[in-house]
Amino acid sequence: MAATASARPLPVLGRGTPSRDRYTIEEPFLGPREHAEVERLKQHLFEGGRPPPPSGDPAATRALLLDRVEQIWETSPPPLDELARSRVVYHLTRELVGFGPIDVPMADPEVEDISCDGVDVPIYVHHRRFGSLRTDLRFRREEDLDRYVTWLAQRAGAHLSLARPLLEATLPGGARLQASLGRQVTTRGSTFTIRRFSDRPLSPLDLIRRGTASPQIMAFLWMAIEAGESFMVCGGTASGKTTTLNAALQFVPSERKVVSIEDTRELNLPHENWVPLVTRSGTGAGAGRDLPSDGSIDMFDLLAAALRQRPQYLAVGEVRGREAYTVFQAMATGKTCLATFHAESVAALVHRMESPPIELPRALIAALPLVLLQRQVVVADAPARRIQSVTEIAGRDPETDELVTSAVFEWDPAEDRFAFTGQSRLLRRRSEEGGGPAPVDRELDRRSELLGHLAALPPEAVGPVELSRWLAAYAREPDGTVAAARSVAEGDRSPERGRPT
Asked: For the domain with range 223-423, which CATH number is right: 3.40.50.1820, 3.20.20.70, 3.40.50.300, 1.10.10.10?
């Protein structure tokens, strides 16, 4: 796992420092005697070929490893002072419990992606604030990179070989790994890309804080989900589609049943009544009457199984194949389906849906009532994500066969703000059912106010679980809940005010 990085003596923790064009990795430096001690400890720890017992909790595994090291040092103490021992422990845990040379960016919550493009090529990270940054880390030797990529696959419980040199898997902690081995499919040697996800899923409040959406947009989505309205979040690569879908799903009432379907697990909901389904590649063994003989389970198979579970909300990550037909059939029959799709406009959405391998008829595409278009943009010289538009589909024009669309919200890039057009089929339908437009407008404003007050609080004050309590309280007593949120936002934290009941 050898890799080189600029390093200088530091305390016992590594650190990653981002700037405009570089991500500098600083770690405690190992001298010859300290390096020898790391190797000696490895020999003791792996006596008999057995590593320390694994644990699903990294902190518990790290504590167990430290206990073993202390036992070894009690019987054979090394000629090192306390600071040197701390550096030894850091590098040992980095290799055996962490992710080796990329452990620093893997521990940085602001780093979203880590990618290695080949031998002797700088490793790059994608930072939330600074975008793509070059690091001072690279694998100099081909055998070291091959060994590291193979080790990553093992950490994910998968296998890479020259016969099967491509891999997509999930690492411990939920990060998504895409890797290739050797020069079979890449000309610069082995590669890997790790897509990281926050331990705490981003909520609608986080999207408001980051400027991805406005309180009014999130209030509109809240009303849409409450009304059982299906929608798709569309955009390009790394535009934040799954993050927005995950946030919107938090508006689903906690007692409603949600079934999610993904190739790689990315959605993370605070709901108890939630069934997360993930596809499986072939195992080579027969799998039963309804499944392929190689044991593979794709999104179409999972979708068929999910519909038998009578979900009230069906979430599909990245619709791209034959499962699209079933998703749209479910929408057409009244099932609430929320999904992501790779398209940068409604026209591109229609074109991809009508083209192979999906090939949906336009009449079925018209069953999709709502489309969110999301983009990765630059705001104030920094990368950002914005919901470009929220568009309703009203059906097809009988003369031109084109979809009839109407924008509900649009993002103004010059002002970096969201404009409400005032035109919405969903709101119009609710006004027809409930006494005119005034009550509906007031409801949208009231929900916007609640979300705005909660978004003004620190993220640690209102996480996904706390947000679900606020939403439940709002369902019981809207005005009182908004008043309580306003009280908290304005700093009144007295026991009798400022909390959902």
From this structure: 3.40.50.300
